[in-house]
Amino acid sequence: MLIERGRNGFHFLLALILIFFLLPCRIGNGAGGYTGLPVTIDLTAANVSSHEVVLTWSDVSATGYTLYEKDSYVDTVYGTATVRRLLNPDTLYCYRVVAFYPDVGSTEQSNQACVKTLPDRTPPTVPGNVVADPDAQGRVRVSWSGSKDDAIVSGYTVFRDGVPVGEVADTSFVDEGLDAGALYCYSISSHDDSGNESDQSDLACAYSYTNDFDPK
Length: 216
Prior knowledge:
Number of helices: 1
Radius of gyration: 31 Å
Order of helices and strands: HEEEEEEEEEEEEEEE
Number of domains: 2
Strand content: 35-45%
């Protein structure tokens, strides 16, 4: 009788231990994952530029890691590093990581790693291969090869004889209402979202003409 009671008491104690350690793994705490797995994740941010930051964290032999920016889900990563790209310049970002294990649960959030991206002072490259192509309606179609930027080229400014005459997002522009027989010279600059502008391209020139007047 005493032996049976001892066994029952042991089983009851074992059940309490299992509930104490495993139940928290199933209880969520919002965007932070789950509580209960006593694993410490050390998150760091480095190699900061105006539009990128490299995040690394300690390896806790997890199946994967969930990345949060503040309380918002960002990505699921199956390694211990990731690069956040296309960030806004001169902006504060704060990240946390949660490790997850199949059929077990997830860890608490890691420490918060905050980093401020650098100001963007790099202009796009200068547009190239500018071509001015007149047609018989007194128009000139100007085209060029696109610029490159450390983030995104947001647009181009078209200059006619040194004066801006248009803003476009793509790599062509049609200049209309021109005087027949006149010579027009065009150059292009590019700019990004931070207001950085490239130098103007080389000139491309063309005579405007119509069916009634051809300077050739």
